[in-house]
Amino acid sequence: MGITIASTRIRTITADTIFFVLLFMFLSPERLLYMKLPIFTTVVILSALTWLYMKRSGNKLKESEEQFWERERKANSTRRKPLTDLEYIVIPYDSLPITGEAGNPVIMECEDFLLRLKDAKIVNLNGITNTELKLRYGVANLNDLSEYDQNYTELIRTLADWGEELNNLGRTEDAIKVLEFGISCHTDIRKNYVILADIYVAEKKYDEIERLIEEAEKLTSLTKNGILTELKKRSIFSPSYR
Description:
- By secondary structure, this protein is mainly alpha-helical.
- It has helices at 15-26, 29-34, 39-76, 105-116, 130-137, 142-168, 172-184, 190-202, 206-217, 224-235.
């Protein structure tokens, strides 16, 4: 049985096309029925398939790089836009347990840092790349946006450390206030969730643990799965779990 090729005018014949035609001819059903492939032939076929895979992977990588640089070029030429749609975080100083008392260096440092943020702008920009920020708001805003995001990172770290120290000192209610504020800021700090969940287990507030799980489900950072694992370990204490 031969191979019939239609009388169609072929404008471009690529290396991939030739490769597939030859591979089809060599591995046609008739040949596979009557021929045992020697080791050399098998190696040749595997090498050819590997070459084709690497070639296609290289083309895809090159295409991705070109798309990235095109977006970057467009981002770097985007003009400044207003930052009015950003979700700025406002620190509730009146409801947080800021006492100004001396004696505990951890608490003093945390309180001092929060007071230094009083006039700062704080925005959670987790999961948004610099290229995306430039496309949305213009390249001229990038430095300000980076500062707002850095303020956010330092804020959630400070809240987690502050809440942990308050809990260690037995100031449970104060610790809850601080750690709950961290949750409202969509923190992805693991200990912020874990310490708060342990407090709720001790107080038998199991519905609050379920709420923490719902909040953690919204995270997009790499810490999400670890946080959910820890929270679900603590949810087994809930009567509704049994």
